[in-house]
Design a protein that fits this description.
32% of the residues lie in helices and 28% in strands. With 258 residues, it is α/β, with parallel strands linked by helices. It has one domain (22-254): Rossmann fold, CATH 3.40.50.
């Protein structure tokens, strides 16, 4: 495994040298299981206390399963700490209650409920509800507050899914494939929103669009076969054509999708 960059300095989205902040979420030796089948073999990762950490890899290597294991949505073992607190044995609702926001790969809005009702359901008791931030980022959701979520476009449903996670005062966001299936204009919009969100709360981002990763991420963790095999500055990784070809199977010169 390529060693993680030691605390100190690293490369930001534009390749600039920046201070590497302490981790808000740390995972060591994570394994994940679905119906007694092991789908995550051994993952180590740290999510910095600010900015975006990208979780990268080819299709089927366990990125989504890693996110679900952290949330407790599938069986897991290993060490997971949130600001030093062990959360590996907690059920999903308690993980969420401690401030881990989750944006699933397939959006999973409540199609029969209105936009407003989808947001109200997401309100966490005891948390500040940041409607001002949500409507700053997604003014269209205010306009469509009474519209059934199931009648929205895919891009609009992604807005609802992101808005639900941003509504509460979370300590970290786990965002899984937010640009999947979206038109290029909407990919840019989602990227803008994530950049703004990362100013408020650190993000662990699973993303196949490498241009989005280049623009947003400071740090990258790469999975192969359910294992973390590379940790380091995102720009440094994406600028290494041989390494990205070997681990992702793509040339980053084309800034394509994995």
């Amino acid at each position: 495994m390529t060693p993680a960059t030691a605390p100190g300095t690293g490369a930001g989205p534009a390749g600039a040298t920046t201070e590497v902040p302490a981790a808000v979420l740390s995972v060591r030796g994570l394994k994940g299981f679905v119906a007694e089948q092991q789908v995550v073999e051994h993952v180590d990762l740290d999510v910095a206390a600010t900015g975006v950490t990208a979780l990268l890899g080819r299709n089927g290597v366990g990125k989504t399963s890693t996110i679900k294991a952290i949330m407790g949505l599938i069986g897991r073992s290993g060490t997971i700490t949130l600001d030093g607190q062990d959360i590996a044995s907690l059920p999903t609702h308690k993980v969420a209650g401690l401030g881990v926001g989750y944006v699933p790969e397939d959006r999973e809005v409540f199609s029969g409920l209105t936009v407003s009702e989808n947001l109200r359901i997401a309100e966490r008791k005891g948390s500040e509800h940041r409607y001002d931030l949500v409507y700053e980022l997604f003014p269209e959701l205010r306009e469509r507050a009474s519209q059934a979520a199931g009648t929205l476009s895919g891009g609009q449903q992604q807005m609802v899914s992101l808005a639900r996670a941003l509504l509460n005062d979370n300590r970290v966001l786990l965002v899984d494939e937010p640009t999947k299936g979206l038109a290029p204009r909407l990919v840019q919009e989602v990227g803008r929103v994530l950049a703004r969100a990362a100013e408020v709360v650190p993000v662990l981002l699973v993303e196949q669009n490498l241009q989005v990763v280049r623009e947003l991420a400071h740090h990258a963790v790469v999975l192969t076969g359910g294992r973390s095999v590379h940790h380091g500055p995102a720009a440094e990784f994406l600028n290494d054509a041989e390494l990205t070809q070997r681990l992702l199977g793509v040339s980053t010169g084309s800034e394509g999708v994995i």
